[in-house]
Specification:
Layout lengths: L23 E3 L16 H5 L9 H9 L4 E2 L7 E3 L4 H7 L7 H14 L1 H6 L4 E4 L7 H11 L8 H4 L11 E4 L13 E4 L6 H10 L7 E8 L7 H6 L8 H4 L1 E6 L7 H12 L15 H15 L1 E7 L8 H7 L3 E5 L8 H4 L10 H6 L1 H10 L2 H18 L8 H14 L2
Parallel strand pairs: 1-2, 1-3, 3-4, 4-5, 5-6, 7-8, 7-9, 9-10
Length: about 425
């Protein structure tokens, strides 16, 4: 299959118009500004683990705390930022004589007393939440705090009673569309997942547009429930290709128990390729081995020209932001993915987005199309990716992610 049957050339870059002035007020009250949670036991361990991807609330607050548009005069503010760290608070639990529940209660009390909140009922208030659905360990924490866990108890319950006050606010969130239990605020600005430090460090050392050792990287499972089920199953055919010869780095995660048809397929692949069941499983806790796996994946991405980004439960995926941080051109397998801050990042200028139907018909054709891509086109995509890193990676010097969030939030408010 010819390359253009799968994907076309990169779109031309058209600069976004300069952002207008967006003065905002940053609540510094200790009940609303959760930056003090950095001193809690376990905070650093979470940041170094794979759960770091769920901590965008932290660097986003950091960017806004020192943002040039921040004003200490509420009368000048068009927006009011509430820097609560919902995910960090939940996972850390007890700290400095407070629990997650008491922190949410105190935040609600402080916000309800704010004359700025009362004046607008929160319509010009903005905040961010770092994740939408709890994993097994977060569910255990939830059970300890609130009783038996079930998936109908989402964001709205986790943040009670604060969530009752944020109904009219603007929220920055990874996923734009969520089930009712995970909806709190009326208007959503899609924000990037946090990229892993190892990917940022490896790219900083190596550079984004240098010759890379591997062609294509993927690490993960074939077994998901959601929009990516079919495309993940079809990826199994990639494992039959000669990986070393073609420059492929494919790391398979196999569920140790349960799973659907694709997990059975993955198990068969693992046995055929002498991969131990569960050996590549990335756990959701902060154990040292988890930290090492996350770091290894970041370095591998930074050594690859392309990174495969298939849909999972939804199109939104944390791996695309770590790929960008690593300077690895995303190859997106989800027709409806748009990415965070699309007007600023201009994903279409560098990502590769083949039709999922075409990929599933012949997965190997994608590999051959990538191998056939001219060097000039690769360099062009890499240059555009380098520009976009500042738009979606929080932990880079001069990151524009905070500004992009303010722009999106302002547009939400102005539409009302």
């Amino acid at each position: 299959m010819a390359p253009l049957a799968l994907f076309g050339p990169p779109a031309p870059f058209v600069p976004e118009s300069p952002a207008r002035s967006l003065p905002f007020y940053y609540y510094a009250d200790v009940a609303l500004d959760h930056s003090w949670l950095r001193g809690c036991t376990g905070f650093d361990a979470i940041q170094q683990s794979t759960r770091n991807e769920r901590m965008a609330e932290v660097p986003l607050s950091d960017l806004l705390r020192v943002h040039p548009q921040r004003t200490t005069d509420p009368s000048r503010a068009r927006l009011f930022f509430v820097p609560v760290w919902e995910f960090s608070s939940l996972v850390l639990g007890e700290c400095n004589g407070t629990s997650h529940s008491t922190r949410m209660q105190r935040a609600a009390e402080a916000l309800s007393r704010s004359e700025h909140y009362v004046r607008s009922s929160g319509r010009d208030h903005i905040w961010a939440t770092s994740f939408s659905q709890m994993g097994a360990q977060e569910a255990d924490v939830y059970t300890q705090l609130h009783g038996p866990f079930n998936y109908s108890a989402g964001l709205a319950v986790r943040t009670l009673p604060l969530s009752r006050l944020l109904g009219a606010a603007v929220v920055g969130r990874y996923k734009r569309r969520l089930r009712k239990a995970n909806r709190v605020s009326r208007c959503v600005v899609e924000v990037p997942y946090r990229s892993h430090f190892a990917a940022i460090a490896a790219a900083s050392t190596r550079g984004v547009d240098t010759v890379r050792r591997h062609l294509l990287h993927f690490a993960g499972t074939l077994d998901v429930n959601g929009v990516g089920t079919a495309v993940r199953c079809s990826m199994a055919k990639l494992f039959s290709l000669p990986q070393a010869e073609l420059g492929l780095v494919l790391r398979l995660t196999v569920r140790e128990a349960g799973g659907g048809m694709c997990n059975a397929l993955a198990t068969q692949i693992a046995r055929t390729n002498n991969v131990s069941i569960g050996s590549r499983k990335v756990a959701t806790n902060a154990r040292p081995n988890n930290r090492a796996v996350a770091a290894s994946m970041g370095r591998e991405m930074a050594s690859s020209v392309f990174c495969l980004i298939p849909a999972g439960d939804t199109c939104e995926a944390s791996r695309i932001y770590t790929a960008v941080a690593a300077g690895c051109i995303p190859v997106v397998l989800c027709d409806t993915m748009r990415g965070a801050f699309p007007r600023q990042a201009r994903w279409e200028t560098f990502w590769i987005k083949p039709s999922t139907a075409a990929f599933m018909k012949d997965p190997a054709a994608l590999v051959h199309a990538l191998r056939a891509m001219p060097a000039d086109e690769i360099r062009l995509r890499q240059a555009q990716l380098q520009r976009a890193r500042q738009d979606v990676v929080y932990d880079l010097p001069n990151s524009r992610a905070g500004t992009n969030f303010l722009i999106g939030a302002s547009e939400c408010v102005s539409r009302r």
